[in-house]
């Protein structure tokens, strides 16, 4: 009986420690180089508008990052309401990704946990691994493998939408705020009037893209979008990162 009670006590202690451990639901991304951006000779569709053509995500290059941690799943409604319990958001079940929050709210949530928003380069490495793949599962576009449907789904509902580092929902469900300001890539010659205007980079595709003409291009890991930090959008959420 004493052994049983001791085992139960140890199990409860382990569960409590895991719940209070900020790294318990995070994936580790090791230090090192990864492939950043697009190869204009091979990845791009023949005729598309400039932003969808990924001209803002060139040149293709090797980029080195320090080690870091990143949430395995997007922050959920249940998570966020613990931080802001009086928030008046419309729909949302506890296990669905939080959405309709500004960059400032996302940043504040992460800081409240001793974390931060990931930079866009950290986001891309966590999704891509160290090779030049276009999607988290490889180079071929598979619509059914990520949530690009008509409604948001609970976190982790698409097991194939998992990066080489075990990070989920980086292709679909909701797009995600990053810490990064929208600026040119190192070595880029591309000009955009939106550069250096305080806009924040948004990464990842989202649900309700199935009828969009450029859904495949939006779902590519290296695709860059941007938005004013105050904006509240129905398909944008976030996840947190932490220095290792």
Task: Give a concise summary.
With 244 residues, this protein is of the alpha+beta class.
Explain what this protein looks like in three dimensions.
By secondary structure, the chain is α+β, with helices and mostly antiparallel strands. It has a single domain, classed as paralog of FGE (formylglycine-generating enzyme). The chain is built from five helices and nine strands. It has helices spanning 2-20, 77-83, 103-112, 120-128, 215-219; strands at residues 26-29, 32-36, 61-65, 68-71, 175-181, 200-203, 224-227, 236-237, 241-243. The protein has a four-stranded mixed beta sheet with strand order 7-6-5-8. It has a three-stranded antiparallel beta sheet with strand order 1-4-9, with helices on one face. The longest helix is centred in the N-terminal third of the chain and has 19 residues, at 2-20. The model is unreliable at 4-18 and 45-49 (pLDDT under 50).
Rg, Cα atoms, Å: 19 Å
Structural class: alpha+beta
- Across the major sheet, the strand order is 7-6-5-8
Any idea what the shape is? Answer: globular
Rounded average pLDDT: 86
**Residue ranges: pLDDT <50 for 5 or more in a row?**
4-18, 45-49
Number of helices: 5
Number of separate structural domains: 1
What is the CATH class designation?
Alpha Beta
Order of H and E elements: HEEEEHHHEEHEEE
Major beta sheet summary: 4 strands, mixed
Q: Kindly report how far apart the N and C termini lie.
A: 42 Å
What oligomeric assembly is this protein in?
A: single chain
Helix content: 10-25%
DSSP summary, beta strand count: 9
> Could you name the CATH homologous superfamily?
paralog of FGE (formylglycine-generating enzyme)
**What percentage of the residues does DSSP assign to strands (E)?**
15-25%
Looking at the structure, the CATH topology is paralog of FGE (formylglycine-generating enzyme)
